[in-house]
Amino acid sequence: MPWEGASLPEPARLFFAARPPGRVLLPGCGSAADMPPLRAMGHQVLAVDFSEAAIALARSHWPEAADSLLLADFFELKLPAFDCVFERAFLCALPPDRRAPYARAVAGMIQPGGALVGVFFMGEGEKGPPFGVGEAELEALLSPWFELEQTQSLPDGLPVFGGKERWMVWRRRMFDLDQAFPS
């Protein structure tokens, strides 16, 4: 895949380096190339993918972290809340009808005050995968649970995304998910 093996983007490196070590989830991790630099900063990282081939590849690259690589469906995870979820080419791999379930699921996986951070593939009407998402749609999807704290273009983005990537930090609002938005 053209996005495999990319280095941690500079805004992500700065974000994670400026924070105390915490629990970080990497959904749709692929070969988990983002895991080693995050672990080197002291973060406890769980990398998840539903593809057996992806997890096998990740385990071959990072045998020392095999216990941090999980073959699972993101939407079925039942784990204690994370301090941060690092989004990198996962949302854009999902069909558009999975965006609302993604937003709800990711909000439930982050403790209040935690963050959804990452690189988002922007663009309306994009055929995919990858599927671009418009800024207004992303705001509508995430704003019930998150507040946008930072957004910037990504100077070291991947060529496959044609300059349409944005680094974003979304802070999880300080309320219990089930009390504020019952299922």
From TrEMBL:
One of its GO terms (molecular function) is thiopurine S-methyltransferase activity. GO terms for biological process: methylation. Keywords: Methyltransferase, S-adenosyl-L-methionine, Transferase. It comes from the Bacteria. The keyword Ligase does not apply. PROSITE patterns: SAM_MT_TPMT. Signal peptide: none annotated. InterPro entries: SAM-dependent_MTases_sf, TPMT. Pfam families: TPMT. PANTHER family: THIOPURINE S-METHYLTRANSFERASE. This is SAM-dependent methyltransferase.
